[in-house]
TrEMBL record:
Entry protein name: AAA family ATPase
InterPro entries per the UniProt record, alphabetical: AAA+_ATPase, ATPase_dyneun-rel_AAA, Methyl-DNA_Rec/Restrict_Enz, P-loop_NTPase
Organism: Ornithinimicrobium faecis
Signal peptide location: none
Segments passing through the bilayer: none
Length: 585
């Protein structure tokens, strides 16, 4: 319970209409409107008489708060300012003012309706559960706690009508939370209001410490926020909506990919390791998001939002507020990845004395739901979901019935789980699915045919062009990279399976005290040679050919990797490409 004295006592057995109360408060003129005027206006609006004193302070201070409206005039405060300016936070500030005014309501909210973090407990926002809890608290206390049916309904109704939640209802009774509503926009006003009202009682916050005063009385729970979320909302106040970003012209290197994505909806970039498949995918994402890849990533947006805004509607609001041209995310497939990781799943949540399992979105279901919501709002955006190493996953087990939905965009497909009241999932036309696949991976032999039929497969060839155009800090390093690439390609050219090693392994920059040439040698010894060894062990390469390559680049048989790295640096310093006929090609 709050350590500060009560400002009043709300009548919980009489219904308080937030709409009517805010309307009356919007007409108050500080310094002119008297307490009697406010009491009369509230009474005429059918509001409980105590509210005139619970919500406002007067000048001069009231001699008898319960018996005299007197000639005193209202003092301005944040609730009045929000009401007369018709601000979005005015109803939430009324909720804050009611909690601040009556410690009984504060106690119910913080001790019964919210958890230790300050988040609402959906199972307790239920008339049939709340009523016996309040009855017991009334029986255990000498205070006049609300305990009848009407008081319970009024408290839950206030949470709805003050814009804290959209409740789930059975008949006319609130039985849970359908969706929490955003509250962080009300935090700055709430901190100001709390500071003003407590200052009237002689509790002054040190300059710059007003938020600490608000948190000391647990005000974060009144707004369904943790202390960290409350503090973050105060220090990073939401900025006004931004104009939607505009993309530059599509680069020529992405034209074919963009064309196939528009036509088919899903593409797999396939090629040898190091060919630049993921790089191309990221380049496409960068273009789609108008070079805003970081703040357009779905997971980054989710992480930036308080828990009560991590909903389809809340995320969609944030996408529009940021003015994003694209929304994207990436997942990596692997043998243990399945439908419940990718589409939808049952998640365990504490409930009373036990645990209940609640259906939840996973990445595909969530990005699809956001896409459909933004489509409903007529907000034009492209969504991209990158599936890294798509061939390593068990495709039927991961996609399930959604393989059909990939082909028939815009058509609802039933799923085993109902999320947000919808038992189906629709893949919107705005979603592009972009996979990457390593053609050297032996698992491609068993890639699901149904996936092949629904994706376009674009080859990403291994060429030395990226090495030629890369911004090396030393031209000698570029020559060395071209030399190693050429030597490796020559050795692999005789492999029956057409194995290749992509150019990304041969790109290097200075790293601390290590020169770019030393970094290049290290990458070759620690990444390329082990890859070639794998090919050898799998029977794809003749061991004698690999041995010949090692000898050609100056490596001694039997040496440790560190020794090999030093040997390779020495070999490259000698500029072998200047005195060998099979130099850079």
């Amino acid at each position: 319970m709050s350590p500060f004295p009560s400002l009043g006592q709300i009548s919980f057995t009489k219904f308080t209409s937030p709409e009517a109360t805010v309307e009356v408060l919007s007409k108050v003129v500080p310094g002119q409107t008297t307490g009697l005027d406010i009491e009369t206006a509230l009474s005429a609006a059918g509001q409980p008489p105590p509210l005139w004193n619970d919500l406002l302070a007067y000048d001069p201070p009231l001699a008898n708060a319960r018996t005299a409206a007197g000639p005193q005039v209202a003092v301005d405060n944040e609730l009045l300012r929000a009401s007369r300016d018709e601000r979005d936070d005015r109803f939430l500030l009324l909720w804050v003012a009611l909690n601040l005014a009556d410690p009984r309501l504060d106690d119910i909210v913080r001790e019964v309706l919210t958890d230790s973090q300050g988040h609402l407990k959906p199972e307790e926002v239920n008339a049939s559960r709340l009523r016996p809890i309040l009855d017991k608290r009334h029986a255990d206390s000498m205070e006049d706690l609300p305990h009848d049916t009407k008081a319970t309904s009024n408290i839950l109704s206030l949470m709805e009508r003050c814009r804290l939640i959209i409740p789930a209802k059975h008949g006319g009774s609130i039985v849970g939370i359908d969706r929490p509503l955003p509250t962080r926009h009300a935090v700055p006003g709430a901190v100001t209001l709390i500071s003003e009202r407590l200052a009237e009682q002689g509790f002054l916050a040190a300059p710059g410490r007003e938020i600490d005063l608000a948190l000391s009385i647990g005000a974060n729970a009144w707004l369904n926020l943790s202390t960290d979320e409350f503090r973050a909302a105060f220090h990073s106040r939401p900025i006004a909506s931004q104009v939607q970003s505009q993309r530059a012209a599509l680069p020529n290197s992405l034209v074919e990919l963009a064309s196939q994505l528009r036509r088919k909806g899903q593409v797999v970039l396939q090629g040898p390791p190091g060919a630049g498949k993921t790089y191309i995918a990221k380049q496409y994402v960068s273009w789609v998001t108008a070079n805003r890849s970081s703040d357009s990533r779905l997971q980054e947006i989710i992480d930036s939002l308080p828990a009560n805004e991590r909903t389809v509607a809340g995320i969609s609001d944030e996408v529009q507020r940021r003015g994003l041209a694209g929304l994207w995310d990436i997942v990596q497939f692997h043998p243990g990845y399945d439908y419940t990781d990718f589409v939808r799943a049952l998640a365990a949540q504490p409930h009373g004395e036990g645990v209940t399992f609640v259906p939840e979105h996973r990445i595909l279901s969530l990005i699809c739901a956001i896409g459909m919501e933004l489509e409903r709002r007529a907000y034009d955006i492209e969504l991209v979901l990158v599936l890294d190493e798509v061939n390593r996953g068990d495709i039927p087990n991961i996609f399930g019935e959604l393989l059909y939905a990939l082909e028939y965009r815009g058509q609802a497909v039933a799923t085993p789980y109902t999320v947000d009241g919808d038992g189906s999932l629709t893949i919107p036309d705005s979603l592009r699915v972009l996979g990457t696949m390593n053609t050297a991976d032996r698992s491609i032999a068993v890639i699901d045919y149904a996936l092949r039929r629904r994706f376009v497969f674009l080859d990403v060839a291994s060429t030395q062009d990226p090495i030629t155009t890369y911004g090396f800090d030393d031209e000698a390093t570029r020559d060395a990279a071209l030399y190693l690439y050429s030597a490796t390609a020559d050795m692999l050219s005789g492999a029956a399976s057409g194995l290749q090693v992509g150019p990304s392994y041969f790109l290097a920059d200075q790293d601390g005290s290590a020169s770019s040439l030393e970094v290049l040698a290290g990458r070759y010894v620690y990444e390329v040679l082990p890859l070639l060894t794998e090919y050898e062990l799998e029977g794809e390469l003749d061991p004698n050919v690999v041995t010949g390559l090692r000898q050609r680049i100056g490596l001694t048989d039997g040496s440790a990797q560190l020794a090999h790295a030093k040997e390779l640096v020495d070999h490259l310093v000698g500029k072998p490409w200047t005195n060998q006929g099979d130099s850079e090609s």
